[in-house]
Design brief:
The complex is a heterodimer of chains A (about 675) and B (about 375). Chain A is elongated and about 140 Å long. Chain A has a 5-stranded mixed β-sheet, with no helix packed on it. In chain A, strand 12 and strand 13 form a beta hairpin. Chain A folds into 3 domains: about 190 residues, Penicillin-binding protein 2a (Domain 2), CATH 3.90.1310.10; about 325 residues, Beta-lactamase, CATH 3.40.710.10; about 25 residues, no CATH class. Chain A has 24 helices and 22 strands. Chain A starts with 9 loop residues before the first helix and ends in an 8-residue tail after the last helix. The N terminus and C terminus of chain A are likely disordered. Chain A is about 40% helix and about 15% strand. Chain B has about 375 residues and is mostly helical. Chain B has one domain. Chain B is built from 16 helices and 3 strands. In chain B, strands 1-2-3 form a 3-stranded antiparallel β-sheet, covered by helices on one side. Chain B is globular. In chain B, about 50% of the residues are buried. The mean pLDDT of chain B is about 85. Classes of the chains: A alpha+beta (about 675), B mainly alpha (about 375).
């Protein structure tokens, strides 16, 4: 029986089925050609992208040490696995909890609790699921970023400041790079990414480039659930360089204690080596705890504390040492004396000017605190005779005064290696405003006020210390600095591959070109003698003396805030003392300003004395630290390892390592 | 007598068809291994092939006319199996479908794969013996009724993918039974209107479930498929195919799309994607040509069939296999929605390979008796 036996075009119908079959197969072939030949490269790339993941390994930041190797900022970085509320706010994730528990090796019940907690929190908040995450945990989370976007790795306590409030202004703190910074070209050039940790304020900011390491990465093949199947390559991170500062923690502590003892507990103390500008101590009080900023706004407590810092009228975030501008009062007389001698207004042999108990300008009489006859310069310094300086100032004139400002570089930043240093304000800065007020003419009364560091003079403590200490070292204006040395760090990776990260060489401080205030040895000695007598020769600060073996030369200042010499409560005079010792071969220069405390000799002087004492006998300084930390541990014995308890434990551990840093 | 039959059978046995079918299965075993190198699917498939060859030999050596005579019995048995599979104690549920029966020693088998054969026999028996001339409406309805019973039972499992493979059987049989061409035209016309309309109404009324809709919509825009949704399968399948390019991945089989589990069901429904990834355009076209050769051989058999019944059986099987290949590969290549249709001879699974081999055995049986009258 053959098909042609049939009627109804059966042969044609069979053929049509066959043709349809071939057409269908041909369609498949064409589609295959399109997918595999036309778009093959594209799909291969898509396949590569989804199976290869690059996992960043954050680099530990370099540590910051004091000059004796004591750890000031911890270089150890720990990582937390955190739960972000935002991606899961509308999703029921209860079925994922088991996955998390397995992936992170955490108790299920603990995770349940955490999820309950996060539900009641604002969207932007995070909740720590696991502290001190291991590399495996980090990998697990990073590879599951598609499935579980709510899980993140957070660098936590991204940095630890074991000293708390101590040195906070100098060290600064670190935090996530801000969106604003990310937009700036200088940050974009360096390849910053959102979430990168950078230094914010202080040395952390100034030397961020060196403290920051180079992150490493792992390139892995993952399966569809993000499980790592194999590793293609791995590049370890290169840690940041360790920074050895010029700070001597013992002197720093002593200075802090002096400020803490002071009448108002507000002010600043700076100690440096006048021979090279190395800063031993810098205190600005009140201070803040950088750890609060590091933990950031993730917790309500942290946000509250940060807000409190910003709102505090005493401005704890403000570094008074380099940003505070204060009328210098009589401390101004030291650079003024040098300038007068240099300008020939008075000479070493003939420097007598009348005191007169004050001076009359027009019909206004401006008093001197005493009656000093017609003293020579040395005596005027020792007794801080205002009447003498009124006349000296008038003889120098406003131009001479401005020349003095330029000589001692009060019109510039000192160049200290901290960000956001403010420039002092002097008659040079105020001149235009004053002349405008008096119909285009500078008036003598302003010269009189300026001659005793008032009204048109507002200087930063650091610039005052720099100027005065130059007198101790023959006029050399050293640049104050904290950098003693950056330690070298080894190369990372295989030199033959493209992943090689070169080692970074260690380096020390390179001072800018030195400027010197030229003066004759006689002129220098004359001013030094005056400063010596302030402490040792019946001057305004005899109580500061540490005896003849360690003679201190200095100058007091009592700067009027509203009305000189009167107790006007919160607006009492600022107390200043600036000096160096030993007087004729100084090793340390110290400045103290105590805000609204009163007389310089009786408030700032003793503070400086305390710092000098610590310098002579560092072992006498109470270093605090360990003893105070033990009190809060016993109650935590039975509670779960909550972050606070863990942090406390870590803190105790770190502080014990604080005395001498262990080799890493 | 027996010797003569033996000799003639050996001479007339359609070796080429059998060898092409077996070659495709062997190629499939290799791809199953590529898909799941750490699982035992590929060894099971070899066992399945051996069983299938034996069954093919038995079916081929049996006179198909006797099988046609027994068609109602097979049909009744088939329906019984489809009822049994629905009973919770007997039917095994996999992926939400109660489509498998557990059989001691053999494992699981899927009645819906096998019932196609009694349906073909029943249709051939009914339409093969009718008088010449155009089909009457009554006859069309009777044919539809033969199909309706198993389709209804399979829908209860529910296995809509398997159901779809039943329709070509009726379509081919009706077409070859001289249904008026205008009915064919009307049917095609109606489908062109009703399918989109039904889809629209289904969405409006919620009859089409969200995941089904997603599977269809992803065809239009696979790039933006929800990575965690159903559309993901389609897109991953396209990536896997495209990635194979001209000659397939080389030396990277350990980290292929299927091994990394990006490709779902790589050894069954998406076996063609695995083939594409591992052997590239060259391998895929070769496979399609092999299918083309196999189908051509079957059509030749149909043309030479000794009677109308044999012709209908072969052509119904041709229609079913062609349709299944097109549905499956179309799904893998991302232009047809994801429905669970296995690729004949390639997909892992005893039921699938066995039912296809029974069908081919049947074709060979018909061909062997082409000169017997």
């Amino acid at each position: 029986m053959k098909l042609h036996d049939y009627s109804q075009n059966l042969a044609a119908r069979v053929s049509s089925i066959q043709i349809i079959g071939f057409v269908l197969l041909a369609i498949l072939g064409v589609r295959l050609y399109h997918l595999q030949i036309n778009k093959g490269e594209y799909y291969r790339d898509r396949a590569e992208n989804q199976r290869i993941r690059t996992i960043r390994i954050p680099a530990p930041r370099g540590a910051i040490l004091d000059r004796n190797g004591i750890l000031l900022v911890d270089s150890r970085s720990t990582y937390n696995v955190t739960l972000n509320h935002e991606p899961i706010k509308n999703i029921d994730v209860s079925d994922r909890i088991d996955e998390y528990a397995r992936g992170l090796g955490v108790d299920r019940e603990y995770l349940d609790e955490r999820f309950e907690l996060v539900k009641n929190r604002p969207e932007y908040e995070t909740m720590v699921l696991k502290e001190n995450a291991t590399l495996e945990d980090i990998t697990w989370v990073e590879t599951h970023s598609l499935e579980y976007p709510e899980l993140r790795i957070q660098l936590q306590p991204q940095r630890f400041y074991p000293l708390g409030e101590s040195l906070a202004h100098v060290l600064g703190y670190v935090g996530e790079i801000s969106p604003k910074q990310l937009e700036k070209p200088e940050y974009q050039e360096k390849g910053f990414r959102p979430g990168d940790i950078i230094g914010k304020g202080g040395l952390e900011q100034y030397y961020d480039e060196y403290l920051r390491g180079v992150p490493g990465y792992r390139k892995v093949i993952v399966d569809s659930r993000g499980r790592v199947q194999s590793q293609i390559e791995s590049v370890p991170p290169q840690a940041g360089q360790d920074l050895v500062t010029t700070i001597d923690l013992r002197i720093q502590r002593a200075a802090e204690q002096q400020l803490a003892k002071s009448a108002t507990k507000r002010g600043s103390i700076i100690a440096l080596d006048p021979r090279n500008g190395e800063v031993y101590a810098m205190v600005s009080a009140p201070s803040f705890d950088p750890n609060v900023f590091v933990q950031g706004s993730a917790t309500p407590e942290g946000r509250k504390q940060i807000a409190a810092y910003w709102q505090n009228e005493e401005r704890p975030l403000f570094n008074r040492a380099i940003q505070g501008r204060y009328p210098p009062g009589s401390t101004w007389k030291i650079p003024e004396s040098v300038a007068a001698l240099r300008q020939g207004v008075v000479t070493v042999t003939n420097s007598n000017l009348a005191c007169g108990g004050g001076i009359r300008i027009g019909n206004k009489f401006t008093r001197c605190m005493g009656s000093h006859g017609t003293p020579p310069l040395k005596y005027a310094i020792t007794k801080s005779c205002d009447g003498y300086y009124y006349r000296l100032g008038l003889k120098m004139g406003i131009d001479g005064m401005i020349k003095m400002v330029e000589t001692f570089e009060y019109d510039k930043r000192t160049g200290v290696d901290l960000p956001n240093e403010k420039i002092s304000r002097t008659p040079k800065y105020y001149r235009k405003a004053i002349e405008k007020r008096y119909n285009g003419r500078w008036v003598d009364i302003e010269t009189v006020f300026a001659s005793i560091g008032q009204v048109t003079v507002d200087v930063t403590p650091i610039s005052m210390l720099r100027a005065v200490s130059s007198v101790g070292v023959g006029g050399k204006l050293q640049t104050p600095h904290f950098l003693k040395e950056f330690k070298e760090i080894g190369a990372v990776g295989d030199r033959a591959t493209s992943n090689y990260v070169e080692g970074r060489k260690g380096f020390g401080y390179t001072a800018p070109k030195l400027t010197t205030v030229t003066m004759t040895p006689e002129q220098n000695k004359l001013v030094l003698d005056g400063m010596y007598d302030v402490v040792n020769g019946g001057g305004t600060a005899t109580s500061v003396s540490l005896g003849p073996e360690f003679p201190i030369a200095g100058k007091t200042g009592t700067a009027q805030v509203t009305e000189l010499g009167k107790d006007t409560g919160r607006l009492k005079d600022h107390a200043w003392f600036v000096g160096f010792a030993p007087a004729y071969a100084p090793e340390l220069a110290v400045i103290a300003i105590i805000e609204n405390a009163g007389f310089g000799g009786s408030h700032a002087g003793p503070a400086v004395k305390g710092v000098f004492q610590a310098f002579r006998d560092p072992s006498s300084v109470d270093m605090g630290g360990e003893a105070t930390e033990e009190s809060d541990s016993p109650n935590d014995e039975n509670t779960r390892a909550q972050p606070d308890a863990a942090a406390t434990a870590g803190r105790v551990q770190r502080l014990s390592g604080l005395i001498r840093r262990k080799a890493d | 007598m027996v010797a003569i039959i033996e000799k003639r059978q050996l001479r007339d046995f359609d070796w080429l068809t059998a060898v092409v079918a077996m070659a495709i299965v062997c190629f499939g075993v290799w791809q199953i291994y590529n898909a799941q190198p750490t699982q035992s699917y590929w060894t099971k498939q070899i066992v399945g092939l051996v069983i299938a060859i034996i069954v093919l030999a038995v079916v081929a050596s049996t006179d198909y006319r006797r099988l046609i005579d027994a068609a109602p019995v097979f049909y009744a048995l088939g329906l019984l199996l489809l009822v049994l599979v629905l009973i919770p104690g007997l039917g095994v549920k996999v992926n939400g479908q109660r489509a498998w029966l557990a059989v001691p020693f053999i494992g699981r088998f899927q009645p819906s794969e096998f019932v196609k054969i009694p349906v073909v026999l029943m249709l051939a028996k009914y339409f093969g013996n009718r008088r010449l001339g155009n089909l009457r409406i009554k006859e069309i309805f009777f044919g539809a009724a033969i199909l309706a019973a198993p389709v209804f039972l399979i829908l209860l499992e529910p296995d809509s993918g398997q159901v779809i493979t039943y329709f070509p059987l009726l379509a081919v049989v009706l077409y070859l039974s001289a249904v008026r061409m205008r009915y064919v035209a009307i049917a095609i016309g109606l489908m062109a209107i009703l399918v989109p309309a039904a889809y629209f109404v289904g969405i409006q009324t919620g009859t089409i479930k969200g995941y089904q809709r997603e599977r269809i919509e992803v065809i239009l825009d696979p790039e933006n498929a929800d990575p965690r949704g159903y559309g993901y399968h389609t897109f991953q399948s396209m990536i896997t195919v495209g990635k194979g390019r001209l000659t397939g991945i080389e030396g990277d089989g350990g980290m292929s799309q299927s091994v990394l589990k990006f490709l779902p069901e790589p050894h069954t429904d998406f076996i063609f994607a695995v083939t594409a990834e591992n052997t590239g355009f060259v391998g895929c076209i070769s496979l399609l040509l092999a299918y083309g050769l196999l189908l051509s051989r079957l059509v030749v058999g149909a043309r030479e069939a000794p009677d109308r019944i044999g012709m209908l059986v072969i052509m119904a099987i041709v229609g079913a296999i062609t349709f299944q290949i097109f549905m499956n590969v179309g799904m893998v290549l991302g232009f047809l929605p994801v429905i669970g249709v296995p690729l004949p001879l390639m997909s892992s699974g005893l039921s699938s390979i066995l039912s296809t081999f029974i069908a081919i055995g049947f074709v060979i049986s018909v061909k062997m008796r082409r000169f017997v009258n």
